[in-house]
């Protein structure tokens, strides 16, 4: 019989907090069980295994992240929307490093496509890019450029990888401006 008060949602929320505290890679079922004062076996009534827990955490974090980004792009277009999106992305990644790391793991696309968070992420991301007049396959390429740039910058910043005396915020603003320029002058697929 499941322990009173222990639910999959509570476990995933606690795993998200744990990820931010000790790193996503250090989230284990044992660590989570210790947090609740239960034996590891008690968790299996709520999650299948560690991979299931991490997948649920990735979905939760992805939803939180897009909820953080959405107000930053609302009512904006073009460069303003891109800057709002980028700044909110970076803020979430730096404020919630463990949750953010969870958003980077591969998740079964069939599972992800069925979640409201995934659909909302696609709607907001593609909506933000609409001002640039891109169509497939260019849209997919543009999303990949943005994601890899944002992720790379955030990973380097979080890891202390920017050692030059140049202000990191100013470099970020230049990077976002460069992305706007690239999107405006996109080499369209023919």
Could you please describe the fold and organization of this structure?
It is globular, with a radius of gyration of 19 Å. Helices cover about 65% and strands about 0% of the residues. With about 190 residues, the protein is mainly alpha-helical. The mean pLDDT is about 95. It has nine helices and no strands.
Per DSSP, the total helix count is 9
Large-scale geometry: globular
Rg on CA atoms, Å: 19 Å
Distance between the termini: 60 Å
> What structural class is derived from the secondary structure elements?
mainly alpha
Give the SSE order as H and E letters.
HHHHHHHHH
Attribute tags:
190 residues, mainly alpha, 9 helices, 67% helix, globular
Quick synopsis:
With 190 residues, the chain is mostly helical. The protein has helices at residues 8-22, 29-36, 50-73, 78-95, 97-102, 109-113, 116-129, 138-158, 168-184. The longest helix has 24 residues, at 50-73.
List the helices and strands and how they pair.
Elements: H1 8-22, H2 29-36, H3 50-73, H4 78-95, H5 97-102, H6 109-113, H7 116-129, H8 138-158, H9 168-184
Helix pairs in contact: 1-3, 3-4, 3-7, 4-8, 4-9, 8-9
């Amino acid at each position: 019989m499941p322990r009173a008060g222990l639910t999959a949602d509570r476990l995933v929320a606690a795993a998200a907090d744990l990820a931010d505290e000790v790193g996503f890679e250090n989230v284990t079922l044992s660590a989570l069980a210790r947090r609740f004062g239960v034996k590891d076996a008690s968790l299996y009534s709520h999650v299948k295994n560690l991979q299931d827990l991490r997948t649920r955490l990735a979905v939760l974090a992805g939803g939180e992240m897009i909820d953080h980004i959405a107000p930053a792009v609302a009512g904006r277009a073009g460069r303003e929307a891109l800057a709002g999106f980028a700044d909110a992305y970076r803020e979430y990644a730096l404020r919630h490093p463990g949750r953010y790391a969870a958003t980077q793991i591969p998740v079964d696309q069939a599972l992800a496509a069925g979640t409201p968070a995934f659909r909302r992420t696609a709607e907001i991301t593609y909506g933000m890019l609409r001002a640039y007049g891109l169509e497939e396959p260019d849209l997919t390429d543009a999303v990949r450029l943005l994601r890899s740039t944002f992720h790379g910058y955030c990973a380097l910043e979080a890891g202390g990888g920017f050692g030059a005396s140049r202000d990191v915020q100013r470099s970020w603003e230049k990077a976002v401006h460069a992305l706007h320029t690239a999107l405006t002058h996109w080499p369209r697929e023919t």
